[in-house]
Structures are given as structure tokens and as C-alpha cells.
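Notes continue from the previous slide.

Worked example: a multi-chain complex. Inputs as given:
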Amino acid sequence: MKRLTTAFIVVVVASASLIFLANHLNASQGMGGSGTITVFNWGDYIDDELIDQFEEETGIRVVYETFDSNEAMLAKIQQGGTSYDIAVPSEYTIAKMAEDDLLIELNHDQLPNMTHLNPDFMDLSFDPGNKYSIPYFWGTVGIVYNTEMIDDIDFTSWDDLWSEELKNDILLVDGAREIMGMSLNSLGYSLNTLDRAELQEAKAKLQTLSPNIKAIVGDEIKMLIGNGEAPVGVVWSGEAADIMYENEALDYAVPEEGSNLWFDNMVIPRTADNIEGAHAFINFMLDPENAAQNAEYVGYSTPNLSAFELLPEEVSGDERFYPAPELTDRLEVYDNLGREMLAYYNELFLEFKIDLR
Amino acid sequence: MGNKSRNLFLIPYVFWIALFVVAPIILVLFYSFRGLDGSFTLSNYQHFFSSTYFQLTLSSFWYAFLITLFTLLISYPTALVLTKMRHKQLWLLLIIVPSWINILLKVYAFLGILGTYGPFNAFLDVIGIGAVQLLFTDFSFVFVSVYIFIPFMILPIFNALDKLNPAFVDASRDLGASSFETFRKVIFPLTINGVKAGCQLVFIPALSLFMITRLIAGNQVITLGTAIEQHFLVTQDWGMGSTIAVFLIIAMIIIMFLSGNRKWGLTSGKKA
């Protein structure tokens, strides 16, 4: 009994001193202090040189952490263990976070570089008046295909996916909004429809695609298409850009009926400690030269008009990633559908997956 | 040791069980009665009995059954052979080693192995069968799942066989039984507890596999686990996800009850 008590005391003392030591170390590194900001971003989604440059210019130290899904990011911010000063969620998550009061309102006076942003990408339904968020990168949902394996289809229409020669050739991303949206678009409906009859029709049409579908997968889709496991995939433009960089035979098309326009925006979560530093960081990233450098490194489409003009012609002239205005007009941003409708989209998608075989 | 200090030692376990076993089950039960709007409702259960989830449950059970069956068919003979080997603990260790490797890594490896340009298809090509599609089929799903579950089946069966007193087998043979009869009437009945434990260890997790369904089967096969994952992560419909989880718990209780054994065959490998 005595030994147990001793052991217990030893453990308590040891943990207490470890906590003290950790606190001390963090403090000496300046973690959590006013001289640092913690940035929470997607993996491989920033040019590291810019972080160094920001630290040099402002004297604020940047702690950089990454996440791999909106849901994972949201969970960590809700839980509130770390004081994230900047996060970069996608648009539907921003709407949700704003609803749940997880975001701090931006002070536009501290963001003079906002004027460089393309007005087309401002004041959108998920964040009216850009109260909480500033666009970081944007993109589309489209079709990536291997020109060596498929030479007579150019995927100008979603209906091309339904053609008979593509039997067992298509990979889809495992996302209810993306895939239901694709079917809705192919029927000429809005991908934010709240009409259950239209959604049923979209699901029925999707089921006729089953023979052509090889698999519905997650992030592995990049690897699988890159390796030539399947010649056609429905993906986000950013993922397409990634694999096209590695495999020259691949091409990307956004069908003319329209598609989804997505955004990753910078926000300041409630957990923020250094609100001023966070504003400085956003403003720094909005600087045309920095934004252009970042866009060239990451390979996604920049919403920064001045930065866009600084990009080399071969990037900015690429209509696959900076589509012509006629097409952008037909792209739609996901609205926050509300839980019930979102559940209905997922329900139909699940039913479609069950009947896939 | 006095009764008092024994009770004192019990405290951490009681805490552990209350916090990590009882509380989560109560939470799952609680959430299963909550609708999307947070009100108390039975609609999740009503929804579960609709055709979609019924079909999903049937197919989950069917695949879990297939996986358990094939795992057992492979594991029992393996365990039998293992107990006859000279360095049986070493061989057992070699079979267990793969289970030390992260399951996700193993599954990713299979993506490469079973792929169109993978070694499996290259082999089929060489022997003249020609490449076939292996990835994203129910075959590959069952194959990879069986591979992953084999150690969990072998261990309890091996322990049961190892504890079997060889005198019983000798007696059976002396009394004129053939090897098959000996197996059927002596060896198998005496190790049935190991088999039951192994089946439980395989069947229950197999019901809720979700990673393999997406990675290896490309959602061509989906299980109750897929639906739970989707409800918790994407739809944020925790109520529905919990309802499905409640049914998994009930299924588990039924299976434990049916296979009702108290010994798990997992005790030490020493001869009895």
C-alpha cells in the first residue's frame, strides 16, 4: 500500500514538473504570446518563403500547422485547445462556422490590400459583405482525363461521362455535394436546388451512370488517375493541377453546363490570440506580388486581380484554371443548404452508392 | 490482502469502465434519440427500418459472414499445423508480425499490389490469363479483409489447440478412430471455444469496416461503418449515426449470446 502511495506521488510530481517545463519552453519560444500567430492551413498550400518574408517584415513569428479536411479543422477549432489566429476553411464550412459563432469579424480598415481582389469573388452567399472571410484560392469541379487513353471525347458536356465507351472507366470523388451537383448540372438544374423532385431525378440519372463507374474514392483519386488506373475522374481543379504537373498525358475540362465554384478563404477563428497579427498576415498575403508568388508555387487559381496580372501568360492564359467569363457565369458556389437538406443530399448519395453494383 | 485494500485497487478500473465503456454507450444511446434539430424523437429508428438501411444491414452481414468464414477456413488448418511445428512460438510470431503494421499502410500497399499495373496482374499476364480488374471488386474487398483479420483468428485457435491434451488424440486413435473422425469428434469440439472467440473478434469489426470499403472496394461494397462515418463527418447527423451504432451494439450482444462462451481461449499458451 505504501509503495503504491509513493508511486502515485512520484507520478503526480513528475507530471506537474513536465507541465511546468512545457509551459516554460513554450513561453521562451514565444508560443501563445503577442509576438506570434498560429496559422492553420491545408497541407502544402503556401510558399514557405512567404512565411519567412512575413516574419522578417513584421517581426511576428509564425507557427504553421496543417489539416487535411474541413471537418478535422472544424473539430480542432471547436475543441479550442490551440489558439489558432488564422484558418483557411472552404466556403460551406465558413457559413457553418459563422452560424456557430466561431469566427471573429474582420476589420476591413486593417486590410488595405483588399482592393486588389477580384470583385466577382467578393460578397458571395456564404459570407455576405466578406464580414468574416477573405478569398485565398478558388477553383472548380471538373473532369480530368488521360488523353493517351481517351482521344475522341473532349468532355465539354457532363453527358460525355454517360457515353458507352467509358464502361468501367470513371473514378468519382466521394463527396455528396460534388457528385449530386454534377448530376443536377447535367440536367440543367442548380447544384443548390432545394427541390426534392429535381434531386430524385438527379439520383435516377446518376444510377444510370453505374456501369461506367469504376470506383468512388477519396484523396487516393489523385494517385489512381496519375498511375493510369482509370482514364477519367471527376475532381476539384486543384487536384487536377497537381497530377497534371506529374503526368503530361492528363487534361482537365469544366463542362459547359456549369459546375461548382469553390473557395478556400482566410478567416480569424474565435480562438485567436493575436487579432492584429492575424490581420497583418491576411493583408500580407493579399499583396499582389506575394499572392502571385504563392499562386505560382501552389498552382491553384488566385482571386487576386492584381496578382493575376503579374502571373506569366502561360498560367493566367490557361482557360482550364482561369475559365473565360462565359463559363464562370455558369459556375455556382455551394450555398449552405441547412442540415436537413444536406442530410437529404447525403441520403440520396448513400442510396446511389448502395445500388452501385 | 484485506478486503479494503482490494477495493482500493478496484477504483481505477471502475473509473476506467465508467468513463470509457459505460459513458460512451449511454451517449450513443442518448444521441440516437435526437433529431437533426436536437429534439427528442424516434424518427431515427423509423428511418433505420426503411429499405435503404435494411439493405445496407443485409449486405454488411453477408460480407462480414463471408470474411469470417474464409478467415476461419484459412486459420484453423494453419493453427493446427503451427501447433505441430518445432519452433511453434516463432512461427506464430511471424504470423502475428503483420498486425503490428498500421492497417492503413497495409491497405495502401494492396492498392498498388492489386492495381492494373501491379505485380498481381503482371503475374496473371505472364502465366497467360491476362490482366483482370481486381481493385474495386467484392473479391478484393473480402481478400484484403481476410488478410487483415487472419492473426485475430489464429491466436485464439492456436491457444485452444495448444492447450489440448494430446492424450485425448492418442486415445481416440488407439480406439480405432480415423484421423478425420478424431478431428471431428475430439479435436474440433475441444477447441470450439477458440473458434468462437476468433469468430467474434473477426465478425464484429468486419461489420463496421469503412476504410477498406472505400480504398479497396471503391465504395462498390458499402457497410454500416460507411454510413456511420458519413453521418458523423459529412452530414453531421449524429443522431442517425448513433442509431446505426446502437444496432451494431445490439448485433454484437446477440452474437455474443448465440456463441455464448465464457472462456476466450486467450489465456496463456502453456499446456494444461
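Summary box: Residues 6 and 12 of chain A are 10 Å apart (CA to CA). Chain A has a mean pLDDT of 89.
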